[in-house]
Write a structure and sequence with these properties.
The chain contains 9 helices and 11 strands. By secondary structure, the chain is α/β, with parallel strands linked by helices.
């Protein structure tokens, strides 16, 4: 009888654990063990975007109460995931004239005693423009796609690696302020990290991933496509044609217009932006209608879940396989 009870208890424990690690799409997720499959769900991505792009944040302009609230929210989420602050606190402070500004920077140490000295930066800007041109009485530019969407990707990926602990190289997560004022947050951090002697492998930035393309054979593009083999390697690691080339992105020099660029300037390494919007498939750039309701969260979660294995492989290869062309 004692043996039978023991078996029954063990079975109940297994069933309860299986239920605990199910996502809202029915897939296993949120386990803290490397043997478990962790799936990012559309609901958790939407929750992040909904907080950041709420009217309560007033458009997250740098120096505003709304961006301070957003930074605190990001810090609390990273702490709950088990992501440590990179500096003494999560905030990397800097000044813009009289304005107090701050990036939010977390760190997931690599598991390999040698490779952990090499760092992959995952970045996105969490600020926006504050108020925009009034449309139907609405003046708040919520910035859901630009760039609560990219911020949600970085936070979701950070949550994955903090739980999975599968990255041999260290991963830094950097959420930038003052991007809308001229890439000032990423410029500050890139210069600081260069001065501190960071051993950077690559910087992968996420910008406007909230809507899918139409009639393309890939899901997102990488800016500066011709500068490195990043797109080819991500596709190889992901096992699909995930990342492609955007002629529009090249035409408008989008490589130089997002937070990857200051890191490229400082380190001269593959520092590029992944985006699913090159302004041909989204009508509300810097518009008050860039709202939570305009985004496709199933697409976003799917894209993030496909990118994660590529980042995972990037973090574990014995050599730095992603390189600038010509090297």
């Amino acid at each position: 009888m004692h043996k039978l009870i023991t078996i029954l208890v063990a079975c109940l424990f297994v069933v309860s654990c299986a239920a605990k690690f199910k996502g809202d799409d029915g897939q296993p997720g949120k386990a803290g063990e490397s043997s478990k499959t962790i799936t990012i769900t559309s609901s958790e991505v939407k929750d992040i975007v909904t907080y950041l792009a709420s009217d309560d944040r007033q458009g997250r302009n740098t120096g505003s109460e709304g961006i301070d609230q957003s930074a605190t929210y990001i810090e609390n989420e990273l702490k709950s995931y088990g992501v440590k602050p990179y500096y003494e606190t999560y905030r990397d402070n800097f000044k813009i004239g009289e304005i107090d500004a701050f990036n939010v920077v977390g760190f997931i140490e690599g598991t390999d005693k040698t490779l952990k000295d090499e760092v992959i930066i995952l970045g996105a800007h969490y600020d926006h423009i504050g108020k925009g041109r009034i449309v139907d009485g609405d003046s708040i530019a919520n910035g859901a796609n630009d760039n609560a969407a990219g911020t949600s990707a970085v936070m979701a990926i950070a949550k994955y690696f903090a739980a999975k602990k599968s990255n041999k190289r260290s991963i830094m997560v950097a959420l930038f302020s003052a991007e809308e004022m001229g890439l000032l947050g990423s410029k500050h951090l890139a210069e600081r990290l260069k001065q501190e002697g960071l051993n950077l492998y690559s910087m992968v930035n996420f910008e406007m991933i909230g809507v899918p393309f139409k009639d393309r054979d890939y899901e997102a593009f990488v800016s500066g496509y011709d500068l490195s083999n990043m797109a080819a390697k991500i596709n190889e690691y992901a096992g699909s044609n995930l990342i492609g080339y955007s002629e529009v992105a090249k035409k408008y020099s989008l490589f130089k217009r997002s937070d990857n660029y200051p890191f490229y300037q400082q380190f001269n390494l593959p520092c590029q932006t992944i985006s699913s919007c090159d302004l041909t498939n989204f009508d509300y750039y810097h518009h008050v209608d860039d709202e939570v309701s305009e985004l496709n969260y199933e697409f976003m979660a799917g894209l993030i879940n496909k990118i994660i294995p590529a980042i995972e492989m990037m973090s574990t290869t014995e050599t730095k396989e992603i390189v600038m062309y010509g090297e």
